[in-house]
Amino acid sequence: MKETSSDGQRDLVGHMRTMADLRSSAGAKNDDLAYSSIEAFVLERGQSWTHVAMPKGIYLGAEKECFSNAYQMADGRGLRYVEGYALRVIPVHHAWCVDASGTVVDPTWKYGGVAYFGMEFDLPTVRAARTDHNVSVLADWPHGFPLLRKPLV
Question: CA–CA separation, 152 vs 57, rounded Å?
Fold first, then answer.
């Protein structure tokens, strides 16, 4: 049976809630963190995004390089950078772009994902998170996970 987008969204959000709950209950309390996990942060701050077929003239980047692919596409084509979780076969931490209408343009997955849930970041924020050892805004461990440390205004 083919999974519909709403089924995929439900499954993706359910997975994120389960992981947030597990990380919250299994981890040691850290008073410096406003959020217990990336999943908890994205669930509170993110939203669902809709994917359609890849627009003509858009070329895929390298597999397993979603953060760089999305950054380069957003920077080069004037799209918006989004990071969060996406469901293709299994839920994964992922990055993609959205166009002016808020539709997903995924520069990494040829056929796109079944569901997307994440939040938009401006390019200066993405640039600041990118280092030799990190390409993710959400999993920015070299800078001590700044988004988990303080709520966004």
Answer: 35
Residue 109 backbone dihedrals phi, psi, to 5 degrees: -95, 120
Would you tell me the crossing angle of helices 38-45 and 5-26 to the nearest 10 degrees? 130
pTM of the model: 0.90
- pLDDT tens-digit map of 75-113: 999 999 999 999 999 999 999 999 999 999 999 998 899
Q: Which two tokens stand for residue 80?
A: 């918006």
Mean pLDDT of 106-126: 95
Distance CA 53, CA 127 (A): 28
